[in-house]
User: Fold this.
Amino acid sequence: MLLRIYSLCVLMLDVTMLLSGIFCTILNAIYRTFRPPPLKNLNCEVAIVVGAGRGIGRELAIQLCQIGVTVAMVDINKEICDATVQRARELHGLCRAYQCDVRNKQAVVQTVNLIKSDFGEITMLFHCCSLPSPRALVQESSDVEDTMHVSVISHFWLLDSILPCMRRVGKGHITLLSSVAGLSNGSSGRGTRVPLSTAQFALQGLAESLHMELRHSDSNIIVSLVHVYPFIIGAETAKDIRFRIPSYFGTISAVEAARQILDGVRRNYAEFSVPGYLFYLGHILRILPKKASFMLRDLLDTGVDFA
Assistant:
C-alpha cells in the first residue's frame, strides 16, 4: 500500500513538472515570436551548399560568402557552379566549385574528402537540390527512383561523411530544405505529384530523427528544417502557373528566399517556412478534419499540384 502511494506521488510530481515545462516552453515560444533570438556569427565557418548552381542554392552560397563563410559549392553541373563561384569571388568570397552527383555514395565520399583537404573540417551543410523546380511542378512527375535518390537518399550519403567532421569540432548546423509538402500534401486533385510529395514528407521524418539522435549526445549540432513555398520563380515559368488568390500566393525571388532562410538558420530555428505564415497554415491543416482540410486546399488551389 505504501509503495503504491509513493509511486502515485512520484507520478504526480513528474506530471506536474512536465506540465510546468510545457507551459514555460509555450511562453518562451510566444516571447520569441515578438522578440527573435539574436543572429549568430558565422564568420570562418566552412559550409557545403549542395545545388549551388542555380535558384535558392546559388543565392544561399553567395550570401554565405558575403558574411564570411568559406563555401564549398557542389553541383552536378560544373559550368553553372563555376558561374556561381565567379559571382561570389567578385564579392570577395572564399569559395570553390565541386562537381558531384549526390546520388552516388562513392562520389559524395570523394567530394567531401576533397573539400576537407582544401578547407578543413566542415561545420555547415545546406542541401538545396531536393527542392522541386517550378517547371517540375507543372510537368509530369519525374522518375520515382531518381526523385527519391536526389531528394532523400542523398542526405544519408552526405550526413555519413559530414557528421563526423561536426563531431570532431564539437559544433555544426545541418539545414534541410523541403517543399511545403513537408507540412501538408498540397495536391489540388488534378493529376498527381505523389513521388515529389512523398519525398518531401520523408525529409520531415529525417529532420525529426536527426533532432532525436543529436539532442543529447551532440547538442551543439543544430538541425533546421525549412519548408519552402515552391513558387520561387522567374518570368519564364510564371505563365505556367495560375494563382487563384494572387495577393495571397504571389511569387518570391530566390534572393529574398535565401535571405529569409539564412535569417532563420542564424537564429537556430529548428523548423520554419518561407514565407513564414505557411508554417502555421500547415499545422492548421493537420488539426482540421480531413474533409475540412481538403476544402481549404480547394479554396487556396494554385492551379497545379505543388509538392
